[in-house]
Amino acid sequence: MPLVSILVVTKNDKIVIKRNLKSIFRQSYRNVEVVIVDSSDDDSPLHIKRCIKNYNTRNFHVKYLHTEARGVGAARNTALKMSSGEYIFYVDADCYIPKDYVKRATEIFSRDNKILSINITIRQYPKDSGIFARTIYVYEQARYHTTPPLCDRFNFWACRKRIFEKIGLFNENLEAGEDTEWVLRSKKFYQKLGEDGYKTVISNIEMYEEKRGWSFREYWRRAIWYGGELANLDYIKAKLVISVIEIIFMFIQVSFPLLVVFFLLGFHISYLIIIHTIGFITPTLYIIYQVRRKEKKRTLFLIPVVIFYKSVFSLLGAFCRIVKEAKNFITIAKGSE
């Protein structure tokens, strides 16, 4: 029975960590080690240690490290280096897994030594209540989860450890989007590794993720955090065309209301109004098309608001990242003089 390493990266997640660790320690597969890298600066470590003591009834080997916060990519790499298992399963702090999750995945791996990873499905649901949180959920599902898992790339949620030898570790320069960058980077290796017989497979294995901070008052924090990736060259290179289009659409969406005001004040910008109207309406119609049969009209009505809201704070996050990088560059330059 091969050793499986379940890796948990966490920071100030005391509210959700109980369910996360409880689901991990209930796994029916026996040969498991649990690696926890904790960057918390609150009392979350006390909750984590209490969970380990109370729920580790099957005596899984646990490695716990409390360290300084250096970003999610650095935390994932640290957990990976601490692990000893042949198989790697990342389960983020806000996620939880069914009792047979590891068992079913290892059975798939055992069929073929050339299987490097398994495409699993992540089921999201909002913790926040209210129409805005529901609209965010609809938006996220329509944008990211309308197509089945792709097999022209590998993933790291359930994989063999040696896949990181072939593709590399996570990018530690990314404060957000390190998972997306890694998956997109894996696509570049897929054809070459496929020629050597390596592969990834689609499964019906599911992980569940509780999304917090989706209320109208809190979502801006998450949008700013994710917006930082749009100012990172490594992330942009990983999804070049998509990133450029995404940034252009965000600028169009944010500037659209201002252009409408200028137009009403008599400015001759009809051509800009047309272009920006198309840029604003297109993503809205796409989301509505994806969910039109499932949602109430008031949810669909709020989708343009959500798109505008997210674009404003995502661009703000990108701007903050640029300012931060510029300050770091100036500090380094002065230090080298």
What can you tell me about this protein's structure?
The chain is of the alpha/beta class. The chain folds into 2 domains: 208 residues, Alpha-Beta Complex (Spore Coat Polysaccharide Biosynthesis Protein SpsA, Chain A), CATH 3.90.550; 118 residues, no CATH class. The strands form 2 sheets. Strands 3-2-1-4-7 form a 5-stranded mixed β-sheet, sandwiched between helices. Strands 5-8-6 form a 3-stranded mixed β-sheet, with helices on both faces. The model has no long low-confidence stretch (mean pLDDT 86).
Secondary-structure content class: alpha/beta
Describe the largest sheet.
Answer: 5 strands, mixed
Q: What distance lies between the first and last C-alpha atoms, to the nearest angstrom?
A: 58 Å
Low-confidence stretches: none
- Beta strand %: 15-25%
Cα Rg: 22 Å
CATH architectural designation of the largest domain? Alpha-Beta Complex
CATH C-level class of the largest domain: Alpha Beta
* Assembly category: single chain
Q: What string, H for helix and E for strand, traces the elements in order?
A: EHEHEHEEHEHEHHEHHHHH
Number of strands: 8
**What's the mean pLDDT score?**
86
Q: Which strand order does the major sheet show?
A: 3-2-1-4-7
What is the fold named in CATH at topology level of the largest domain? Spore Coat Polysaccharide Biosynthesis Protein SpsA, Chain A
